[in-house]
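#struct-pred
JK: can someone run the complex with zinc ion? inputs below
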Amino acid sequence: MRGSFIAALAVFALTAQPVVAKEPADLLIRHATVVDVEHAQTTKDQAIATRDGRIVAVAGDAAIAGHWRARSSIDAQGRYVIPGLWDMHVHFGGGKDLVEENQALLPLYIAHGITTIRDCSGDLPDEVLAWRAEIASGALLGPTLLSSGPKIEGIKPIWKGTLETGSRADVDAAITKLKGLRVDFVKITDSTLDPQLFLYAVAQARAAGLNVSGHIPMALTVRQALDAGISSIEHIDYAFKAGAKDEAAIVADFAAGRITRAEADRRLDADFDEATAMNAYRDLARRGVFVTPTLNGSRILAWLDQTTHADDAYLAYIGPKLRKTYDWRIQRAAQADTDAIAQRHAHYEQLAAVLPMLQRAGVTILAGTDAGFLNSFNYPGIGLHDELALYVDNGLTPAQALLSATRAGPAWFGTLERYGAISPGKIADIIVLDRNPLGDIRATRDTHAVILRGTPYDRTALDHLLAATRAKVAAWNAVDAK
Ligand SMILES: [Zn+2]
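RT: done, structure tokens with the ligand placed:
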């Protein structure tokens, strides 16, 4: 009798105590609908636990609440959770006087749910590489910054802050220097770069284990750049070029000096052929070469005749010196006559029509804006949401557009094991949205909270980031007006 009484007491004692102590997390996101961006599926009433900047658990809310405790939590009831957004084509630059104004753009990305940016080179490579390190160490607030460092160019290029190369030895030295700077990839532009050196630079960068991207010289076919090993095509214009039936002949005429650049462009426009294009795009897909369309930038420039953008609310985030860098393209656009303007509009429509063809051919689209200095009214942060909306307006599904901004970037960098999903082990870069982006891509801008490498920013904190940049710009404008 006595033995069984003690046994009964022991059972009582066991059940009355917590079975296990809850594990500590830094943050719990409760009752969320998790969007699996890879498969375009949602799972309701999930909870996410993060610790030390990583996602440590994702499961039904009750299960997570039973196992984890955290100092802070976000109620995501009725809300949607996606991985942080990546803008794969941004710039910083405009000269040493603009360092502060460029740096003030960094919080804008966070405030718009963009947790990673790929800097495609400007004229402040030393500053940007320093920011990359400071952001990584937590000394500077900004999205994870991946940078090409200084781009490879020819001798005396129109772009500043480049590595000028006029020989194979120069290219070798440039790539050694870039390896030393631990750049995340290599960017090459061709304002004065010899086309054969361009091909050499692409091949050598790949041989050095670096991804490489850039502007393909008019004197080369896109196929030549692919054969050399280019990893992504920046700007949909170059994908469009590959769709010209006569591309090789146009390129040969241009290379031999028989036609001007403008004439080459005109012939490429007239020569676009869907079957040729689809063949070229299937080749891109087979080779695993991604395309960053940067449609938003092209659209803004094509329609500069119809708006001055003087009333754009986002000008409040752009410092006066950065804003001055807009003038170059504005003035160039203003010189265009009626025919040139009509041609520009038509050309944009042609470019945009390439997007669904790329998708159909199986090419991975990288969402990128070209936001930054020079590129007028292409605003850092909000620009990516405009870019994604353009993808859907031009024939992608919201799910495809979402992939381009969440998984395509890490796929290009080979870091999908750390990014691109809401699952254990991933970096805790998480966006909480008020609406389902799979239903309407414009929901990506309805940000309730952003978790950046584990640190949560609720709507109030995000609004503070925006207000801080507005205040800086207002102060600079006041000085500038004197
Ligand atoms: Zn660019």
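RT: quick notes.
Residues 338-361 form the longest helix (24 residues).
Confidence is low (pLDDT under 50) at residues 5-14.
JK: thanks, will look after standup
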